[in-house]
Design brief:
Ubiquinone biosynthesis monooxygenase COQ6-like protein; oxidoreductase; 9-stranded mixed beta sheet; D-Amino Acid Oxidase, Chain A, domain 2; about 450 residues; FAD/NAD(P)-binding domain; Ubi_Hdrlase_CS; monooxygenase; 11 helices; 2 domains
């Protein structure tokens, strides 16, 4: 539904992007406005506010099209220029420095990265996940997810995601950013540049950068995260909810039961007794990232534990057998019903078979790797297209975390943002192509 709404909104009057982007109307702007700034107004066709993974991916998607060769596109990023590793070397296990900010990439996200020519640089660092196992009180009564088999309809549906042999790919964010930064042309990005004011100016959007430079654009795309400056200065409602939870992330060393185990299964456990969710996301053969979602009032206590005590807490979250209820009679009844059902039900109706007989044992925590941050939910849906406050020209599009912030338990936050970037780029490029054919 979200993508359909975005696609419909992308059809907002085809004059958004056309051959009159740089029309003489901009030159007629008030001289009094220009006198406020150190330079005259710079005209652009598209300005992207935010140089994270979603913003850089959208820039790469636009630059991939020949229809954008004569268009002026600029990305503004408030951080300083990153140091880009020219030839990042992949080192396994102890030799490799692992980051605690990781993402789970779906097959659709992988194929988007392939289309914008960055996947080959990400792939050496992307851990292929062959299965995912989810459970609550009993590991063997969990649900296992495997790669889906191609259906007959996929053969006739041109937009179907190509069949993948993996459930997903786990990769550190720094390697995705490195690949995208290497691909981007330096003349399209301005670092240490913060938008400080946005206003509507006839058919354009005026952007003040660092309080002194004035830009003008036909389309402003907000990719500036959940604290989006652009969103806060637009006429769009934003629903924000404190989930009263925190997430602790970090890097752990794991020991699997088999010597030749490739550590290619992701695990997630729901723990109702402590109202928490624990996920293990493999990174290499012996190391994994973890996400522990907990009530906010327990976070500080867990962060104050020693590394050894913290590892014990994580192992307990993995291996303890939870009680379904405080009643011993009901607990015993539930256990016996499980046994009966799995004895007499046909195999097709039994619980899905776990990909491993046990989850991996956590042997250590990578020093200084764990950190905690609050969890919130936020959304502008169903509106992704808007105008600066007081405006009405609908020349601002809000995507990624700037538009929707979700709980990390499904690992879909970044994938939703990449889907936004891909679909918006497709809509714009199709409109430009259609317009060129009519001229």
């Amino acid at each position: 539904m979200r993508l359909t709404l975005l696609k419909n909104k992308c059809k907002f009057n085809r004059f958004l992007i056309n051959r009159r982007f740089l029309s003489e109307e901009r030159a007629k702007s008030s001289n009094q406005q220009n006198e406020r700034f150190s330079s005259t107004r710079e005209p652009f066709d598209v300005v992207i506010n935010g140089g994270g993974i979603v913003g850089l991916s959208f820039l790469a998607a636009l630059r991939k099209s020949p229809f954008m060769n004569d268009k002026r596109v600029l990305l503004l990023e408030q951080a300083s220029r990153p140091s880009i590793a020219a030839n990042a070397t992949l080192l396994e296990n102890r030799e490799r420095s692992l980051g605690n900010r990781v993402s789970s990439l779906t097959a659709a996200s992988k194929q988007f990265f392939e289309a914008i020519d960055v996947w080959s640089q990400i792939k050496p660092f992307a851990k292929e996940i062959k299965a995912m196992h989810v459970w609550a009180h009993d590991f063997y009564n969990g649900i296992s997810f495997y790669p889906s088999s191609p259906s007959v309809s996929d053969m006739f549906y041109s937009n179907a995601v190509k069949h993948e042999s993996n459930v997903c790919y786990i990769v550190e964010n720094k390697h995705v950013l490195n690949a995208l930064s290497k691909t981007a042309s330096s003349d399209c990005i301005r670092y240490e540049s913060s938008s400080t004011e946005i206003t509507e100016n006839n058919e354009y959007i005026d952007i003040v950068v660092n309080g002194k430079d004035l830009l003008s654009t036909s389309l402003l795309v907000a990719c500036d995260g959940f604290n989006s400056f652009v969103r806060q200065n637009c006429d769009v409602n934003y629903f924000d909810l404190d989930l009263q939870q925190s997430a602790i992330v970090g890097t752990i060393e794991v020991v699997n039961e088999l010597e030749n185990d490739e550590n290619d299964v992701a695990y997630q456990r729901f723990i109702p007794e402590t109202n928490s969710v624990f996920a293990i996301l493999p990174l290499t053969r012996n190391y994994a990232s973890f996400v522990l979602s907990i009530p906010s009032n327990t976070g500080e206590r867990l962060m104050s534990l020693t590394d050894e005590e913290f590892v014990d807490t994580l192992n307990d979250a993995l291996f303890s057998r939870l009680k379904v209820t405080n009643s011993s009679f009901i607990q015993s009844a539930v256990t016996n019903i499980d046994k009966v059902l799995n004895t007499f039900l046909p195999p097709s109706l039994r619980r899905s078979r776990a990909p491993r007989s046990n989850p991996p044992h956590i042997s250590s925590l990578q020093p200084n790797s764990h950190a905690m941050f609050p969890l919130r939910f936020g959304t502008t849906l169903p509106y992704l297209v808007t105008s600066p406050k007081g405006g009405k020209n609908n020349k601002v599009v809000i995507i990624g975390d700037a538009s929707h912030r979700i709980h990390p338990l499904a690992g879909q936050g970044l994938n939703l943002g990449l889907g936004d970037a891909q679909l918006l780029a497709d809509c714009l490029l199709k409109d430009i192509n259609a317009l060129n054919k009519t001229l």
